C-alpha cells in the first residue's frame, strides 16, 4: 500500500536527489574483532570503514563511522552531511537533530539538513521558525516540492490558509507535482473549513488518480462531511472492488457507516506536514530510492507516529526489508499504533520477516496477533501456515490452513491455494485421504491448475493407482507449463516408475536443461541413464547431484550409488493392483524411495 501511486516522471529525479557518498574510494574490508566492533586507528581507516558501510547499505555502522570521521575532521561538512543522512535513515533523530542544526550553520544550502530541522520545528508547532529554516532550500525539482508543501503547512499553522493554498497553486514545474498539489491544497482548505474548495480539489485528484487509497479516502471523507454519504460509500466500494482487503478503505467505510461525525484524513497542520513527507518518501522508495526515501519516512513518523493510519510505517518497513535491514523493518512495523488501520498488515509483514530470520517463536506471536486483529485476512493464515510447513510442522500447518478455510462462506476459485497448501501439509503428515480430498477440491475450484494436477498425478503414480488418469494429469500440467523443469521432472519420473525408461530419459533430460541447479532432478536423470545402459553418464549425474548440495535422506542414497558405481535402492517399478485402482485411499505407498515429492513451487520449496 502507498500514499500515492508512483509517478513515473519522478524516476529521473530519484538518482539526482539521492545523496551520494562524499568521495569515491575503493571498497575495502574493515577489520572486525570478535565483538563485531571495528578497530579503527586512523582517519583513513575510519573513512574506508564508512565507505564499506556505504557499499553494503549498512546505515547503522555507516552513521557511526561518518560521525567519527567528522569528529576527527570537523572542517569536513560533507562527512557531517553523510552522518546526518544515515543517522536519520536509521531512525536516530535524537542524535541526528543536533548534527543537522550544526550542518545548517556550516552549510546553509544543505537541503536535507534544513528539512530535518524544519520537521522538528513543525513537530513543536514552531511554524514561523520552520518557514525561516526553509528559505533558500528549494533548488531542484524534489526540493522545490518538499519545501513548498512544508512551508504551506507552516503557513496553515499560522492561520494563513489562503496564502498557503496560493503558494501551492503557484508552484510550477513537473507534471508529477499535480497530485501532491491537489491533495494537499484540498486538505489545507478542509482544515480552514472551506469544504467547497476542498471537495473540488479532491474530485480533480480522484479523476487523475482513483487508484490512490489516500486520494480515495480524502475524497470520500469530505463527501461524507458535506452530507453526501451515498456518493462517499459509492467511490469507496468501487475502490474496495479492486482492493477488497485495503485496511484504510475498510476503516473509512466503517467510519462513514457508523453515523458518528466523520473526520478528515488530515486534521492539523502537523499531520499535513507528516503526510507530505510520507507521500514523497513512499514515491521515492517505489522508484528504487533508499536513503532519501528512508529519511523522508523517518521524518514523517517523527512528526506523526500514526501518519496515514500506519501507512508511512508500512512503506518504511517494506523499504528497509527490501534493502536487507530486516531487524529495523520489524522494529518499525511493530511500532505501528495499536488502533491504526494498518496495524494488522504491519504485524503480518513483521511476522513474515521474523520467519525469514528463523525467529519462529516471535513470528508465531506476530502471526497470531495479525489474525486476532483481522480474522478475515486469509493472507495471514497462508503466510503462517507456510512458515510451519517450511519448518516441517505439517500437522500444525494443516490446522492453520483449516482455520482459514473455516472463514470461507463458500469457497471460490481464488481459494484453491488454501486447499492445495493444506493438501500438501496432509500428504507430508502421511494423512493421504485428507490430502487427496483437498487436491480434488482445489481442482474443483480451479480445473486444470498445473501445480495441483502435478502434485495429485504424481502422488497417484507413486502409489500405483489411477495410472492412466495420473499420467494424463501430469502431461496436462506439462502442457500448461512446458518450461517448468520441476513439472517436467514429474512426468519423467512417472515414466521411470512405470518402467518406460527411454521416455523417462527424454523428459528428465529436458527437466535438467530447464532447471540446472536442483540435485533431485540430476539424481533422477542418473537413475534413468543407468536403466538404459548409459552407466558413465549415470555416475556423472549422481556426482553432479551430490555436488549441487543434495540433502538427506537422498544424499545418503546418492553416495551409496557413487561408491558402488551402480544403481542401488532405486524406486521400484509400479505394478498396480486391482484393489488399489478401486480405492486409492486404502492404497499402501510403495516402499521408501530416494527422491522428494513434487516441488511446491508456489511456496518456494525448491
TrEMBL record:
Residues 569-606 are annotated as: Disordered. This is Tetratricopeptide repeat-containing protein. The lineage of its organism: Bacteria, Pseudomonadati, Pseudomonadota, Alphaproteobacteria, Hyphomicrobiales. It comes from Afifella marina DSM 2698. It comes from the Bacteria. The keyword Electron transport does not apply. Pfam families: TPR_11 (PF13414), TPR_16 (PF13432), TPR_2 (PF07719), TPR_6 (PF13174). Keywords: Coiled coil, Repeat, Signal, TPR repeat. The keyword Iron-sulfur does not apply. Residues 1-29 form the signal peptide. PROSITE patterns: TPR. TPR repeats lie at residues 274-307, 344-377, 416-449, 485-518. Residues 353-407 form a coiled coil.
Amino acid at each position: 500500500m502507498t500514499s500515492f501511486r508512483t509517478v513515473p516522471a519522478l524516476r529521473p529525479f530519484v538518482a539526482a536527489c539521492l545523496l551520494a557518498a562524499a568521495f569515491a574510494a575503493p571498497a575495502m574490508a574493515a577489520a572486525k574483532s570478535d565483538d563485531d566492533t571495528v578497530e579503527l586507528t586512523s582517519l583513513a581507516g575510519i573513512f574506508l570503514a564508512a565507505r564499506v558501510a556505504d557499499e553494503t547499505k549498512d546505515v547503522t555502522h555507516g552513521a557511526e563511522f561518518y560521525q567519527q570521521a567528522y569528529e576527527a575532521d570537523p572542517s569536513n561538512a560533507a562527512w557531517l552531511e553523510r552522518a546526518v543522512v544515515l543517522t536519520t535513515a536509521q531512525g536516530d533523530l535524537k542524535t541526528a537533530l543536533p548534527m543537522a542544526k550544526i550542518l545548517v550553520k556550516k552549510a546553509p544550502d544543505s537541503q536535507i539538513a534544513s528539512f530535518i530541522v524544519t520537521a522538528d520545528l513543525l513537530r513543536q508547532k514552531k511554524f514561523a521558525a520552520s518557514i525561516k529554516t526553509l528559505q533558500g532550500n528549494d533548488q531542484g525539482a524534489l526540493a522545490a516540492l518538499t519545501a513548498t508543501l512544508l512551508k504551506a503547512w507552516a503557513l496553515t499553522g499560522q492561520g494563513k490558509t489562503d496564502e498557503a493554498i496560493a503558494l501551492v497553486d503557484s508552484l510550477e514545474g513537473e507534471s508529477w507535482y499535480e497530485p501532491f498539489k491537489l491533495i494537499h491544497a484540498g486538505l489545507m482548505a478542509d482544515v480552514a473549513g472551506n469544504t467547497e474548495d476542498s471537495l473540488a480539489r479532491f474530485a480533480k485528484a480522484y479523476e487523475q488518480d482513483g487508484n490512490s487509497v489516500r486520494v480515495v479516502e480524502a475524497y470520500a471523507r469530505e463527501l461524507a462531511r458535506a452530507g453526501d454519504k451515498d456518493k462517499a460509500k459509492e467511490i469507496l466500494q468501487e475502490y474496495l472492488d479492486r482492493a477488497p482487503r485495503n485496511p484504510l478503505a475498510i476503516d473509512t467505510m466503517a467510519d462513514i457507516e457508523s453515523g458518528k461525525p466523520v473526520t478528515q484524513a488530515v486534521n492539523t497542520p502537523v499531520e499535513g506536514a507528516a503526510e507530505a513527507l510520507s507521500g514523497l518518501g513512499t514515491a521515492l522508495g517505489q522508484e528504487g530510492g533508499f536513503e532519501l526515501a528512508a529519511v523522508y519516512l523517518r521524518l514523517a513518523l517523527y512528526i506523526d507516529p500514526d501518519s496515514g493510519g500506519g501507512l508511512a510505517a508500512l512503506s518504511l518497513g517494506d523499504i528497509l526489508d527490501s534493502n536487507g535491514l530486516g531487524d529495523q523493518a520489524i522494529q518499525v512495523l511493530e511500532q505501528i499504533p495499536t488502533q491504526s488501520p494498518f496495524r494488522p498488515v504491519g504485524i503480518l509483514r513483521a511476522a513474515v520477516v521474523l520467519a525469514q530470520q528463523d525467529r519462529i517463536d516471535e513470528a508465531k506471536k506476530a502471526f497470531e496477533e495479525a489474525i486476532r486483529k483481522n480474522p478475515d485476512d486469509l493472507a495471514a493464515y497462508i503466510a503462517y501456515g507456510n512458515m510451519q510447513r517450511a519448518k516441517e510442522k505439517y500437522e500444525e500447518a494443516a490446522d492453520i490452513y483449516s482455520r482459514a478455510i473455516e472463514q470461507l462462506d463458500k469457497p471460490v476459485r481464488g481459494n484453491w491455494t488454501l486447499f492445495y497448501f493444506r493438501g500438501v501439509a496432509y500428504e507430508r503428515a502421511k494423512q493421504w485421504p485428507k490430502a487427496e480430498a483437498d487436491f480434488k477440491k482445489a481442482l474443483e475450484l480451479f480445473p486444470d491448475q498445473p501445480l495441483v494436477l502435478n502434485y495429485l498425478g504424481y502422488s497417484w503414480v507413486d502409489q500405483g493407482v489411477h495410472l492412466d488418469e495420473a499420467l494424463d494429469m501430469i502431461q496436462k500440467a506439462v502442457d500448461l507449463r512446458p518450461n517448468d523443469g520441476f513439472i517436467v521432472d514429474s512426468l519423467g519420473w512417472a515414466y521411470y516408475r512405470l518402467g518406460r525408461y527411454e521416455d523417462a530419459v527424454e523428459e528428465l533430460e529436458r527437466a535438467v536443461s530447464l532447471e540446472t541447479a536442483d540435485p533431485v532432478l540430476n539424481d533422477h536423470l542418473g537413475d534413468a541413464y543407468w536403466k538404459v545402459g548409459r552407466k558413465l553418464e549415470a555416475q556423472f549425474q549422481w556426482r553432479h547431484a551430490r555436488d549441487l548440495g543434495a540433502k538427506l535422506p537422498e544424499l545418503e542414497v546418492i553416495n551409496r550409488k557413487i561408491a558402488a558405481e551402480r544403481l542401488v535402492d532405486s524406486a521400484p517399478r509400479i505394478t498396480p493392483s486391482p484393489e488399489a485402482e478401486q480405492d486409492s485411499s486404502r492404497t499402501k505407498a510403495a516402499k521408501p524411495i530416494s527422491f522428494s515429492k513434487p516441488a511446491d513451487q508456489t511456496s518456494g520449496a525448491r
